[in-house]
Specification:
12 strands; seven-stranded mixed sheet; alpha/beta; single chain
């Protein structure tokens, strides 16, 4: 049994950018944040990224899935074993396919394996319950973003933007008492973020990503491709809404005839335009956009966002947070909410019919 009040919880996250596994400890009771603990990272090798990339789009039982799941479990267990004095863990797994209106959602990795390996209760499979009840299954971090808005002392609406493989944004009204209150949150996927840029660099230069936006900085944006991208029907769809990593995979085909630099610049501009279009749906304008995820380290992307948004655009470090670990921390927070019987997604964040607590708890010994 978990003790009453705040508990040290370990969260782990492997995102759609396929760079590696983040792990972070927070102290929380599932409603508020009491403190932040240690963190760690375990990168995927190029061979491991190749194995995961080959399984993207696959569902349980299909080729490559079992191997991907074993890799995910081993990589997570290796990293998580380095943490001590935690009472609970939240394990997201590796998203291979996400089709909420069709076959559902698929995260590789079994929390039962980790519970046995670590001797620790593990909360996992966070998205399935939401999808089964009509939700998009994403994004799931908004409940944590709400707690962060309270922690930093925000008083007026603001937004948290995560730029991973896919971008997602959370609009927060910190004047509300709890995330389940009406009009406390709005959240949805903005569009492609780092995934197309990473795939371009991998295919053309054998690099994992455009470090510091250096290649994009050398290029010229194709206005024709960007205009065509900005008119995509997804940007007209009212939230909640979510994306799979490869829903905009045609972008790479569209930039195929461009030079490396021009292609990188155009894909970076597409990520920024996605966010600008997303802001059109905010219930009220925000005074600041706090950016987390790898995209915040790309100065070209951040400059494009600053130019397109009518508010301050800052990395989350500006308010004392760790942008590398926010997603891992979020799944620690969500794990605690599941353990306490609190909802993890809401009609305004995933489109689920009513607030729902997703996630399965696995304990050592079954």
């Amino acid at each position: 049994m978990l003790k009453e009040g705040a508990v040290r919880v370990l969260g782990v996250m492997s995102g759609t950018s396929l760079d590696g596994v983040d792990a972070a400890v927070i102290e929380t009771d599932g409603k508020t944040i009491s403190g932040f603990g240690e963190s760690g990272y375990r990168g995927y090798s190029e061979a491991e990224r190749g194995l995961l990339r080959a399984a993207l789009g696959a569902w349980p039982g299909e080729a490559g899935v079992a191997e991907a799941a074993v890799l995910v479990e081993q990589a997570h267990a290796e990293l998580m074993a380095g943490f001590s004095d935690v009472g609970l863990a939240g394990f997201h797994g590796q998203t291979l396919a996400h089709e909420p209106a069709g076959r559902g959602t698929h995260q590789a990795g079994d929390g039962r394996v980790l519970a046995e390996a670590l001797g620790l209760p593990v909360v996992w499979d966070f998205r399935s319950a939401d999808v089964q009840l009509g939700g998009q299954g994403a994004p799931l971090a908004p409940a944590y973003h709400f707690a962060l808005a309270k922690w930093i002392g925000a008083e007026r609406p603001l937004a948290f933007l995560n730029l991973g493989g896919v971008g997602n944004v959370t609009w927060v009204d910190p004047s509300r008492a709890a995330p389940e209150e009406p009009e406390a949150l709005m959240a949805f996927d903005t569009g492609p973020a780092n995934a197309p840029i990473n795939d371009l660099l991998q295919a053309r230069r054998g690099l994992a990503f455009d470090e510091g936006g250096a290649l994009a900085a050398e290029g010229t944006v194709s206005a024709e491709i960007l205009d065509r991208f900005a008119s995509h029907g997804y940007f007209l769809k009212y939230p909640p809404k979510s994306l799979d990593r490869d829903d905009f995979s045609g972008l790479l085909e569209q930039v195929a005839a461009l030079s490396d630099a021009d292609a990188a610049a155009t894909l970076t501009a597409a990520a920024a335009v996605s966010v600008v279009r997303a802001a059109e749906f905010f219930p009220t304008p925000v005074e600041r956009l706090l950016v987390t995820g790898g995209g915040r380290l790309n100065p070209v992307l951040m400059a494009m966002l600053s130019e397109g948004m009518g508010c301050a655009v800052e990395p989350v470090e500006a308010v004392g947070l760790d942008g590398d670990m926010l997603e891992a921390q979020a799944f620690a927070f969500l794990a605690m909410r599941v353990a306490r019987g609190l909802p993890t997604s809401f009609p305004s964040t995933t489109g689920v019919a009513a607030a729902v607590g997703g996630g399965e708890i696995s304990r050592p010994g079954g």
